[in-house]
Design goal:
Layout: E1 3-7, H1 10-19, E2 21-22, H2 30-34, E3 40-47, E4 55-65, E5 71-72, E6 82-88, E7 94-95, E8 120-123, H3 125-135
Parallel strand pairs: 1-3
Antiparallel strand pairs: 1-8, 2-6, 3-4, 4-6, 4-7, 5-6
Length: 147
């Protein structure tokens, strides 16, 4: 299993939670093809709304990538982004601030958010488990996410 942090507004993450999918990088397909079935994905939301100044600064969703390959989805208005299906693990939002010293992805960075600037970044399974624990998330068998 590999693990990832994806970045999107909380509003967009909630849409994916409701319908069991993820999108990254404004609907680009390339990043989603790097992810494999069974990989863990945690969403970090810097804001509540896309482009907004309403800070969220929390992990807002966590799950495991489903077996289905990436696919296109017509959202209307000519926007046809790539998606991947995800089995969301539940839980609650977890503010990033208390986790900064515990997550290796942020260790030694002068600007902690710098690794997230590309919208999808691979992380260690230990970091994934730490985020899952902070979110109170569990997989389908009811066990906390583990590596």
């Amino acid at each position: 299993m590999r693990a990832w942090i994806a970045v999107a507004s909380a509003e967009h993450v909630r849409r994916g939670l409701a319908d069991g999918f993820m999108q990254v990088c404004h609907g680009k397909g390339g990043p989603l093809h790097r992810i494999r079935p069974g990989d863990g994905v945690a969403y970090y939301s810097p804001t509540v709304t896309m482009g907004g100044r309403d800070p969220c600064r929390a992990f807002t969703a966590i799950g495991l990538v489903a077996d289905r390959d990436p696919y296109r989805f017509d959202m209307g208005g000519g926007f046809v982004p790539w998606r991947r299906d995800v089995r969301w693990m539940g839980g609650h939002d977890a503010p990033v601030a208390p986790l900064l010293q515990r997550l290796s992805i942020f260790a030694g960075k002068s600007t902690w958010a710098a690794p997230l600037r590309f919208g999808l970044v691979e992380i260690g399974t230990e970091d994934f488990a730490t985020i899952a624990q902070a979110m109170g998330a569990a997989n389908q068998e009811g066990d906390p996410a583990a590596h």
